[in-house]
């Protein structure tokens, strides 16, 4: 990674501490040398870039999605490119960390805080869907917070331009990627042809987590998590936390009930139902 960090293509940035890493790459804090603008640089692992063409394709998909989408509730990418043969993305810095970090540190959010946050996120999701993108990996770790507490959708690494035939073959038949705790059964069974409703379910599941500190389903250690998704139903919000307002709990329970398909086809539909949940 040091070779990539010092590559000429990144000389405009002073790259600082590592903020996190995953299967595909490493994320670093960075500062623009000319004006001191803070940012984040996501670098693909050079060994993976050399060895796995499919991984490169997914990373480049994130690059394209990140540059194409411009919304207050989507993490903004300012630059993409390749350094020492490894793709990279320069993004805005969200100093508040992830929603997963926030809930793990401070506990479940009060409804009065969670609801406005998710109304904004659903606006961002509706915008992405309108632009032709399905995220396919909405989860608490992919919701980032600014210093002021604004929430933004991050990591379009699995995003699919669902109207573009040119991208339709990116996922091999039978492949399932993503995070099972925040995927509806329909997505597990038919990942390749995921439509916007899977993201709406995942956003509802993420709201469920924000309110309760738990995913909608219980996952037994040692049991296949994909089997859990396809054979069990989400638990009611009230079984996790009794003080969530009943009207809000009813909307969230409906939104994550995937026993007979996806309850909401669009982010706008879920947002409309949530808007009246505290009145």
UniProtKB/TrEMBL annotation:
GO terms for molecular function: ATP binding; protein serine/threonine kinase activity. Keywords: ATP-binding, Kinase, Nucleotide-binding, Serine/threonine-protein kinase, Transferase. Residues 13-279 form the Protein kinase domain. The lineage of its organism: Bacteria, Bacillati, Actinomycetota, Actinomycetes, Streptosporangiales. It comes from the Bacteria. It is an enzyme of class 2 (transferase). It comes from Nonomuraea rubra. The keyword Kinase applies. Its EC number is 2.7.11.1. The keyword Secreted does not apply. This is non-specific serine/threonine protein kinase. It holds the Pfam family Pkinase.
């Amino acid at each position: 990674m040091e070779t990539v960090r010092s590559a000429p293509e990144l000389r405009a940035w002073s790259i600082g501490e590592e903020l996190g890493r995953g299967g595909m790459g490493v994320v670093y804090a960075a500062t623009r040398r000319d004006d001191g603008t803070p940012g984040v640089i996501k670098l693909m692992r050079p060994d993976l870039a050399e060895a796995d063409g499919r991984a490169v394709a997914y990373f480049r998909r994130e690059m394209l999605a990140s540059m194409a989408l411009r919304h207050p509730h989507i993490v903004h990418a300012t630059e993409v490119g390749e350094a020492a043969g490894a793709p990279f993305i320069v993004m805005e810095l969200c100093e508040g960390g992830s929603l997963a970090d926030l809930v793990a540190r401070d506990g479940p959010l009060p409804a009065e805080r969670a609801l406005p946050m998710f109304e904004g996120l659903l606006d961002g999701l509706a915008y992405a869907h309108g632009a032709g993108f399905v995220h396919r990996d909405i989860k608490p770790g992919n919701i980032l917070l600014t210093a002021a507490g604004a929430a933004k959708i991050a990591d379009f690494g699995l995003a699919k331009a669902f109207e573009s035939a040119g991208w339709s073959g990116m996922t091999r038949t039978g492949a399932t990627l993503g995070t099972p705790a925040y995927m509806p059964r329909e997505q597990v069974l038919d990942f390749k042809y995921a439509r916007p409703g899977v993201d709406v379910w995942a956003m509802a599941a993420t709201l469920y987590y924000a309110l309760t500190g738990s995913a909608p389903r219980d996952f037994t250690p040692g049991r296949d998590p994909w089997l859990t998704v396809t054979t069990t139903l989400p638990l009611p919000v009230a079984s996790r936390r009794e003080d969530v307002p009943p009207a809000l709990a009813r909307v969230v329970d409906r939104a994550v009930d995937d026993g007979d398909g996806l309850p909401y086809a669009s982010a706008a539909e879920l947002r409309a139902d949530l808007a009246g949940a505290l009145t």
